[in-house]
């Protein structure tokens, strides 16, 4: 029995080495933009953090409303704020590789992209050892070869159904209205917790979640993780 356990553990290690994020080997390079589950489901995804104080404030909002989300992490910011990455992981949210420097990856070769994505995952795992990173999202949605490269590294490319365009903060009321008006069942929604002052996004999410829950929407993770 013990030898079987040892063997299974050894195979697990080998698989882990071949596919660092997806524990079960092959990952589809198809870009996923759909929330898991049926009916009125939505996945919240937040890009460009970690970014104190907005990311910790967002974590507090999500904790109070009991919602799990995906955080697409910018490697340079991971290096600057590893404690915030730990807080994200500790809260049970899902991690997504968003490249090291937020470059336009369409200008890079597959080898250069692979080096960037590996460096980003390594930075995340320096903050959170053995972190599961099931997703990759290309900066600007400029995929180039990165969807295939990410899949080969065990990360599913994560797209989105709509972007609330909060990179130029239009006011919390406008963000709330965008979130409520544009929502369709199964949408993966893109918002930002980093890359600038995201306090309006945090406030909007805090207001929108109870409204949607009252309308029986459910918050699920994207398919494929
Ligand atoms: Zn981004």
TrEMBL record:
Question: What keywords appear on the UniProt entry?
Answer: Signal
Task: State one Pfam family annotation.
Answer: Polysacc_deac_1
SUPFAM superfamilies referenced in this protein's UniProt entry, alphabetically: Glycoside hydrolase/deacetylase (SSF88713)
Query: Signal peptide position in this chain?
Result: 1-23
The residues covered by the NodB homology domain are 40-220
Q: Which PROSITE patterns match?
A: NODB (PS51677)
Query: Does Signal count among this protein's keywords?
Result: yes
Q: Which InterPro entries match?
A: Glyco_hydro/deAcase_b/a-brl, NODB_dom, Polysacc_deacetylase_ArnD
What name has this protein been given in UniProt? Answer: Chitooligosaccharide deacetylase NodB
């Amino acid at each position: 029995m013990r030898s079987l356990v040892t063997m299974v553990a050894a195979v697990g290690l080998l698989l882990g080495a071949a596919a660092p994020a997806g524990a079960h080997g092959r990952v589809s390079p198809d870009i996923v933009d759909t929330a898991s589950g049926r009916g009125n489901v939505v996945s919240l995804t937040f890009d460009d953090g970690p970014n104190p104080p907005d990311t910790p404030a967002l974590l507090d909002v999500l904790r109070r409303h009991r919602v799990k989300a995906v955080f697409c992490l910018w490697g340079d910011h991971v290096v600057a704020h590893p404690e915030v990455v730990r807080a994200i992981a500790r809260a049970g949210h899902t991690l997504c590789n968003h490249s090291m420097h937020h470059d336009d990856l369409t200008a890079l070769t597959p080898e250069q992209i692979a080096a960037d994505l590996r460096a980003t995952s390594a930075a995340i795992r320096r903050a959170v050892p053995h972190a599961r990173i099931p997703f990759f999202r290309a900066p600007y949605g400029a995929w180039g070869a990165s969807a295939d490269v990410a899949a080969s590294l065990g990360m599913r490319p994560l797209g989105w159904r709509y972007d609330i365009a909060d990179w130029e903060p239009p006011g919390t009321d406008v963000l709330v209205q965008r979130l409520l008006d544009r929502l369709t069942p199964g949408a993966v929604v893109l918002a930002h917790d980093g890359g600038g002052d995201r306090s309006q996004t945090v406030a909007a999410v805090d207001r929108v979640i109870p409204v949607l829950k009252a309308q029986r929407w459910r918050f699920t993770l994207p398919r494929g993780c």
